[in-house]
Write a structure and sequence with these properties.
Oligomer: single chain
Strand content: 35-45%
Structural class: alpha+beta
CATH topology: Immunoglobulin-like
Number of strands: 9
Distance between the termini: 95 Å
CATH superfamily: Immunoglobulins
Shape: flat
């Protein structure tokens, strides 16, 4: 009789242990392991919404202002500038700084009848950027265009510190690739491409006084 009771007890104990082992295994499948990587929400910082066109579409005439001073020249026709405006939006309530790195390529036929390219680059740093819609702008002056030709490509990269937030490019020259042309040494270091200075931040041009509130303060 005692032997039968012992056997029954062992059978019951075995069943209880098996049950808890099965439940623990099921929980282990549902619960992620401690070593499993948990996704970290990434805050959206900046997005470029609109890029300017290259070529003739970038050209604008010198703005005219009314003053009480006489003209120093006689009926001179307003000259043309190449104006590149980037529209972008930011999400954080405030950003301390943003760095915009611009690359603009122009093309002009040389004395030998062949196309010659010129690369203009400029880094612009803005400060105290509030959440919302913004505009950034760089410009090529009339004499620069007359000497080195019309723009055929523009690219911009936006950085927060060392982090690249967004980049875009617009190209009208079929000889240039649409993507990453400004970082390709086969292009920017080509014998037919010359690096130049002369790309201007907007505040250093006659356009500085137009729609001032649309632009951030330059560091």
């Amino acid at each position: 009789m005692k032997r039968v009771l012992v056997l029954r007890f062992l059978l019951i104990l075995t069943g209880v242990v098996s049950f808890f082992l099965a439940v623990d295994g099921a929980d282990a499948q549902v619960r992620p392991s401690a070593s499993a990587a948990r996704p970290t929400p990434k805050e959206s910082v900046l997005r470029i919404r609109r890029m300017p066109r290259s070529g003739r579409a970038a050209m604008v005439r010198t703005p005219e202002f009314q003053t009480n001073m006489g003209r120093s020249t006689r009926n001179r026709k307003p000259l043309e500038w190449a104006l590149f405006e980037i529209e972008y939006e930011t999400e954080p309530k405030w950003l301390d700084t943003l760095d915009f790195t611009y690359s603009v390529m122009t093309r002009k036929q040389g004395a030998d009848g062949k196309d010659a390219y010129n690369l203009f680059q400029l880094r612009v740093t803005y400060i105290d950027i509030q959440a919302g819609d913004h505009t950034s702008c760089v410009i090529l002056a009339p004499n620069t265009l007359a000497r080195f030709g019309e723009p055929v490509a523009i690219a911009v990269e936006v950085y927060q510190g060392e982090t690249l937030l967004d980049s875009r490019s617009e190209v009208s020259d079929k000889k240039l690739p649409d993507a990453d042309w400004w970082k390709d040494p086969r292009i920017v270091d080509s014998p037919i491409v010359t690096r130049r200075e002369g790309l201007l931040e907007r505040s250093k041009t006659p356009f500085a006084l137009i729609n001032m509130d649309d632009y951030e303060v330059v560091k």
